[in-house]
Design a protein that fits this description.
single chain; two-stranded antiparallel ribbon; 530 residues; alpha+beta; 9 strands
């Protein structure tokens, strides 16, 4: 569609027949599933939120503690900001590497603030991993990320060579200086603990500073997806109110229609009002993310074919696909091959444990960079302003999925990672091409809808099979979602984005825990490694 083309907007005066019934059925289904699982039937299903606090997951998955801020934030307006959402850190998983490294770095900082007399007693540091972190952490290199944070490294600045060195030489011992004491730490101090239990979140871990058998300091933490972390007793930082409060895409679209603004303009207005930053400061951060996305794709494309670390012995293919794409006959075939190569490049960098960008997670780190790369100088040659706007529009979609469902594969399967990333990409493309906000929302809906129910079943616990190729399919589906939405009459779309996010939340709650980043089902079981 040509930029600035006029497309009929959704008629909001009276919803199409059946849409209210669909919404009621969605809430009713959610209410009934909660009742069946908990034995408690809600009296008024019209008030059941899309993300039911504390509702157990299927197949014995642990309940989310209602006290978690990620659950509380399912009420009220979206307050997430770009600097919280787009994070740079080591792969292969935002929840299993970036989150744990942020957690242990936070604990390290807490330890440095203890009184000198307590630090003088310290003899050891211990980290225990539970739930999904324990079940698939070895395949993700969680123990290396946790140790890196414990010795004072932050995700955005850690040298990937440090993590590679831990993998090559796991017996290394490091010294953590606390006050006047030097505390020896090694990978042996990162303990893979119980995989099942009554955890507040599927990704739970504890950190302790010990004096012999005596605990000087202990904190329970949760890696809640997308690199976001919380801890027991967590209180979120105070923020200013958003200029355009919204908790659903329908509310965001209403703001856009009333003030004749785009999703990107709405997002920018909220970024500046919530954070107090100027537009120039927000754009400076977005430029850093654009630069990081560009770098991860280029690095992945340039890397010669090699074997990824781990027992799968998986060969990389981004470089070969990219080279072969140059000679593809036919514009469509070449375009699909190139987008796939870009996504494979970013995802293979993630699998190597190199620096990637959560958009929204590490496991999906190939999708949005591929979309942005295909919109930039190597593809559609969009301006820097257009690329910034694309990131902002994509963020709105990601915020809403986090707000009303989940970004964590340990909570919702791969639909929460690749599905959300693809939806973000579709909205980003629509925004970059100047499509109306309703078309961007429809594009995101289509991309997310066709990832519903996708399980997380990483073979051997490594973010390689099926994760790497899924990023390529997710990037292509982002373009497909945009192309369908931009060539249809928006008012004729029968499924809206909010309903699809509700469906994702419900599917996540009903999905068996075997398919929630535990490597206990699906491909993780059917694929035999020799």
């Amino acid at each position: 569609m040509a930029e600035g083309a006029i497309v009929p907007e959704l008629d909001t005066r009276e919803p199409p027949a059946g849409s209210d019934r669909r919404a009621f059925m969605m809430r009713s289904a959610l209410a009934l599933s909660i009742g069946a699982l908990t034995g408690c039937q809600p009296k008024d299903v019209s008030n059941i939120p899309a993300k039911a606090p504390g509702a157990p997951g299927g197949g014995g998955a642990p309940a989310l503690d209602p006290s978690l801020d990620v659950v509380k934030k399912s009420k009220g307006p979206v307050m997430t900001t770009a600097q919280e959402f787009y994070k740079v850190g080591p792969g292969p998983s935002s929840s299993h590497t970036i989150g744990p490294m942020r957690i242990t770095y936070d604990f390290y900082q807490r330890c440095t603030r203890l009184p000198a007399d307590q630090l003088a007693q310290a003899t050891a540091l211990k980290v225990n991993l539970f739930g999904s972190l324990s079940a698939t952490g070895k395949g993700h290199g969680t123990e290396r990320a946790a140790l890196a944070g414990l010795v004072g490294n932050e995700p955005a600045t850690v040298d990937p060579a440090f993590l590679d060195g831990l993998a090559a030489n796991p017996d290394q011992t490091f010294t953590v200086k606390l006050g006047g004491k030097d505390i020896p730490v090694s990978l042996k101090d990162i303990v893979y603990d119980a995989t099942k239990g009554d955890f507040h979140h599927p990704n739970t871990m504890t950190c302790k500073l010990l004096a012999g058998d005596k605990v000087l300091l202990e904190q329970e933490y949760y890696s809640v997806g997308g690199g976001f972390i919380e801890w027991k007793g967590y209180e979120p930082p105070k923020k200013n109110p958003p200029k355009y409060p919204y908790a659903r895409i329908s509310e965001a679209l209403a703001h856009c229609k009333r003030d004749n603004i785009t999703l990107a303009q709405l997002a920018m207005a909220n970024e500046t009002s919530i954070t107090g930053q100027s537009e120039a400061e927000v754009n400076a951060f977005l430029d850093k993310i654009l630069g990081a996305m560009d770098a991860t794709v280029k690095t992945g494309l340039a890397a010669p074919t090699s074997t990824l670390p781990g027992p799968i012995k998986l060969k990389t293919k981004a470089h070969d696909v990219y080279v072969n794409a140059q000679g593809q006959e036919g514009t469509a075939r070449r375009a699909i091959a190139l987008v796939s190569a870009y996504a494979l490049a970013g995802s293979e960098e993630n699998a190597r444990g190199h620096l990637v960008i959560t958009a929204p997670t590490g496991g999906s780190a190939g999708v949005l960079p591929a979309v942005i790369y295909s919109l930039g100088p190597a593809g559609a040659k969009m301006s820097k302003d257009k690329l910034r706007e694309a990131l902002l529009a994509g963020a709105v979609v990601g915020y809403l999925c986090k707000h009303n469902a989940t970004l964590s594969a340990a909570e919702g399967g791969c639909q929460a990672e690749i599905g959300v990333a693809s939806a973000m990409g579709a909205a980003a493309i629509a925004q970059a091409y100047g499509a109306p906000p309703q078309v961007a929302a429809n594009a995101a809906e289509g991309a997310l809808e066709h990832h519903l129910g996708m399980t997380c079943d990483p073979v051997a616990g490594f973010v390689q099979v099926p994760c790497i190729e899924r990023c390529a399919f997710g990037a292509v589906k982002a373009w497909t979602g945009y192309l369908i939405a931009t060539n249809e009459i928006p008012v004729n779309r029968r499924v809206d984005f909010d309903s699809t996010v509700d469906a994702m939340a419900l599917t996540a709650k009903e999905m068996n825990s075997k398919y929630k980043e535990t490597s206990e089902g699906g491909l993780a079981v059917s694929v035999t490694l020799c």
